[in-house]
């Protein structure tokens, strides 16, 4: 496939979701870069050019205008606040910062056409964000408290390997947070299911949290779908259609990374974040699975924030990154605006039972949920670069044609609304 792409002399190349080129070292970026640069014309499309940092813009700029902002080291020092840090005993450039953002915004305005959803979808109902803070049961918080104490101890005695140790500890605490709050998340989902007319999305990151959410829905005997990294693209299409069209399928349990982009769930009017993620770009993209063309209601977004866990720190980090991307792309500081819910209203969550992972719900999910799509209907992209086979006459009955058309047509509740790509 790579050779087939490189051997083509494309007149025009269009790259959708171009922010996937954000990493300079990723294989995807190295393959796409010469393909885009060789083309006579190139267009990059994305709703989130940078998910959290200016460094994520460089490869996209380089693909369109090589050396326009100088070499990578020049760009990193000027706009990424690049500095040397020690990871273990090895010095390394850290380019995760941000600097001179007003200047970068002005330069980007010469090569980027930026349109916000509020500017082009003026009739789309608003998002209503709400933070749901709650305290963990003392037993669930015990392991996390130990990790926080370990973190403080490391920071009090800095050494050449402190940064590497802290990063590993934070990753561990992220997983601990998921397990610690899983029992409360289950109770919250069951509370929402008491409203028989409500369809909603639940986003999570760790498999442990996805499993806990699945258990909550199964225990409530509610029909649902689940999309994580193990679900193929063809199966996702069928699951999305099921959620959109079937009134009895009330919950979509979704991985932030696997299902947070490119899918439409406008049948839902509520979105629940069981977990946070590392950058605001992924979070906002996930929100917009429900908040997009075809949505007729306000979208209520609930963030479940467990006090005394990594959630509190991550919420602050998300808002700092949102200010960086807002200044860079839109010329103004932004943050994830969310009203804080009445803490007393959610006191029941602190009495949730501790949750531990098990395999039973996974087996039930496999039996009850997934329907496999015929692989012969999938096409290898390499076939588009091969000579076309001779056409043969194919007789199809009217009934079969009609049935195929009905099965592959999405009927909109409003004939004036059409499906939209994920470029806004």
What does this structure look like?
Residues 184-340 form the Helicase C-terminal domain. It comes from Macaca mulatta. With 424 residues, this protein is of the alpha/beta class. It folds into 2 domains: 2-114, no CATH class; 124-367, 3-Layer(aba) Sandwich (Rossmann fold). It has helices at residues 2-6, 27-38, 58-64, 72-79, 101-108, 117-120, 138-156, 162-192, 207-219, 233-245, 256-259, 280-287, 310-330, 360-368, 398-407, and strands spanning 12-16, 41-45, 83-87, 90-94, 127-134, 200-204, 223-227, 249-255, 270-273, 299-306, 339-340. The protein has a 7-stranded parallel β-sheet with strand order 7-8-6-9-10-5-11, sandwiched between helices. Strand 1, helix 2 (27-38) and strand 2 (41-45) form a beta-alpha-beta unit. Helix 2 (27-38) packs parallel to helix 3, helix 7 (138-156) packs antiparallel against helix 8 (162-192) and helix 8 (162-192) packs parallel to helix 9. The protein is globular and about 60 Å long. The protein starts with a helix and ends in a 17-residue tail after the last helix. The model is unreliable at 366-382 and 391-424 (pLDDT under 50).
Mean pLDDT: 82
Principal-axes shape call: globular
Biggest sheet strand order reads 7-8-6-9-10-5-11
Distance between the termini: 29 Å
CATH topology title of the largest domain:
Rossmann fold
Return the structural class: alpha/beta
- Can you give the helix content as a percent range? 40-55%
What is the CATH homologous superfamily assignment of the largest domain? Answer: P-loop containing nucleotide triphosphate hydrolases
Largest sheet report: 7 strands, parallel
Count helical runs: 15
Unreliable sequence segments: 366-382, 391-424
Order of helices and strands: HEHEHHEEHHEHHEHEHEHEHEHEHH
β content, as a range?
5-15%
Q: How many domains make up the 3D coordinates?
A: 2
CATH C-level label of the largest domain? Alpha Beta
- Total beta strands: 11
The whole-angstrom Rg is 24 Å
Name given to the CATH architecture of the largest domain: 3-Layer(aba) Sandwich
Domain Helicase C-terminal: 184-340
Keywords: ATP-binding, Helicase, Hydrolase, Nucleotide-binding
Organism: Macaca mulatta (Rhesus macaque)
Domain Helicase ATP-binding: 1-67
């Amino acid at each position: 496939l790579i050779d087939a792409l490189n051997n083509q002399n494309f007149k025009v190349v269009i790259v959708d979701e171009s922010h996937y080129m954000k990493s300079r070292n990723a294989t995807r970026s190295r393959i796409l870069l010469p393909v885009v640069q060789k083309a006579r014309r190139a267009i990059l499309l994305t709703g989130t050019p940078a998910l959290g940092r200016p460094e994520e813009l460089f490869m996209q700029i380089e693909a369109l205008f090589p050396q326009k902002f100088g070499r990578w080291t020049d760009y990193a020092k000027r706009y990424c606040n690049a500095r040397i840090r020690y990871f273990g005993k090895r010095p390394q450039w850290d380019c995760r910062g941000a600097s001179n953002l007003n200047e970068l915004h002005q330069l980007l305005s010469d090569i980027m056409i930026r349109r916000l959803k509020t500017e082009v979808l003026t009739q789309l109902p608003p998002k209503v964000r709400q933070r749901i803070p709650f305290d963990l049961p003392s037993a669930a918080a015990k392991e996390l408290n130990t990790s926080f104490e370990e973190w403080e101890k490391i920071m009090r005695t800095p050494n050449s390997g402190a940064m590497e140790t802290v990063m590993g500890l934070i990753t561990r605490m992220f997983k601990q947070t998921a397990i610690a709050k899983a029992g409360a998340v289950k109770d919250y989902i069951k509370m929402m299911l008491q409203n028989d007319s409500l369809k909603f999305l639940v986003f999570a990151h760790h498999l442990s949290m996805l499993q806990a959410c699945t258990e909550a829905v199964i225990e409530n005997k509610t029909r649902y779908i689940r999309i994580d990294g193990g679900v193929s693209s063809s199966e996702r299409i069928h699951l999305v259609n099921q959620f959109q069209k079937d009134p009895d399928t009330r919950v979509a349990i979704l991985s932030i990374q696997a299902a947070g982009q490119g899918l439409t769930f406008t049948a839902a009017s509520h979105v629940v974040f069981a977990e946070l993620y590392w950058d605001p770009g992924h979070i906002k993209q996930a929100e917009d699975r429900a908040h997009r063309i075809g949505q007729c209601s306000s979208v209520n977004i609930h963030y479940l924030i467990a006090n005394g866990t990594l959630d509190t720190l991550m919420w602050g980090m998300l808002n700092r990154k949102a200010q960086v991307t807002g200044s860079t792309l839109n010329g103004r500081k932004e943050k994830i605006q969310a009203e804080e819910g009445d803490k007393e209203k959610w006191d029941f969550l602190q009495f949730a039972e501790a949750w531990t992972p098990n395999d039973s719900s996974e087996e039930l999910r496999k039996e009850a949920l997934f329907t496999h799509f015929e692989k012969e209907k999938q096409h290898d992209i390499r076939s588009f670069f091969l000579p076309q086979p001779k056409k043969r006459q194919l007789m199809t009955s009217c009934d079969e044609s009609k049935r195929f058309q009905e099965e592959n047509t999405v009927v909109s509740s409003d004939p004036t609304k059409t499906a939209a790509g994920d470029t806004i």
